[in-house]
Amino acid sequence: MARIATITKKEQLDEAGQKVYDAIVQSRGVVGGPWLALLHSPEMAQRTMYLGAYIRFESRLDHKVLEFTALVAARELECKHEWAAHINHGTKAGIPMETIRLVHAKKGAESFSSEDAQIVSFVREMIHAHRVSEATFQAIYKRFGEKSMVELTATVGYYAMLACTLNTFDVYTATPPDDLKI
User: Fold this and answer.
1) Band of residue 78 on the pLDDT scale cut at 50, 70, 90
2) Above 90 in pLDDT, residue 174?
3) Based on the number of CB atoms within 10 Å of its own CB, is 78 exposed (0-12), middle (13-18) or buried (19 or more)?
4) Is 16 or 179 the better-scoring residue by pLDDT?
5) Residue of 74, 57, 26 whose CA lies nearest to 176
6) 121 backbone dihedrals φ, ψ, rounded to 5°
7) What are the pLDDT digits (tens) for 121-162?
8) 13's torsion region: left (phi>0), alpha (psi -120 to 50) or beta?
9) Which site in 23, 68, 86, 125 is 20 to 30 Å from 54, CA atoms measured?
10) What pLDDT is attached to residue 80?
11) Model-level pTM greater than 0.90?
12) How do residues 16-54 score in pLDDT, each as one tens digit?
């Protein structure tokens, strides 16, 4: 159960907040997950929505890479909502369920394909060491180049920010399969 009152109806907001609520619905189809808490600050919700729209829908990153990055970040940050939501998004993007199970089990990078292992190492190092090793940096840089590497880094940061919000307020509206719960 959420630790704060959640914003589930636009009528709970003033006129300016209602416009943000409508924009979230237009962009994502529904107001759920982090928006239930973020809408306590409509300006923050709106700015987060714009960043998220770019990351999720306009980024130059391959959609499968983006979803895999979101899954690894959500799992490492133990974010129930993002984990559950991105299992569905990830499978739709072509991530095999066996790969998702490896992420769930927090298997070592050596358990993944070489390309997935690069992402796993990158995300884990950013989250746990707060920087990446030279070897990981060089592997990601060679694979993605500067612009896409910046976008990959921002993607991890975006999902970390959402995880902080969701975990702090214990908000989640997506549920994973029983064998993949965190």
Assistant:
1) very high
2) no
3) exposed
4) 16
5) 74
6) -65, -45
7) 999 999 999 999 999 999 999 999 999 999 999 999 999 999
8) beta
9) 125
10) 96
11) yes
12) 999 999 999 999 999 999 999 999 999 999 999 999 999
**In the numeric block, which tokens belong to residue 147?**
């612009």
Name the one residue in this structure whose structure tokens are 């990078």.
Answer: 109
CA distance 101 to 106: 9
Asked if residue 126 lies in contact with residue 76, where contact means CB atoms within 8 angstroms, the answer is no
Q: How many CB atoms lie within 10 A of CB 46?
A: 18
Tokens of 142: 């060679």
Instruction: Scan for tokens 């995880």, then name that residue.
Output: 163
pLDDT at residue 150, rounded to an integer? 98
Residues in the chain: 182
Q: Identify which of 176, 141, 155, 163 has the alpha carbon closest to the alpha carbon of residue 69.
A: 155
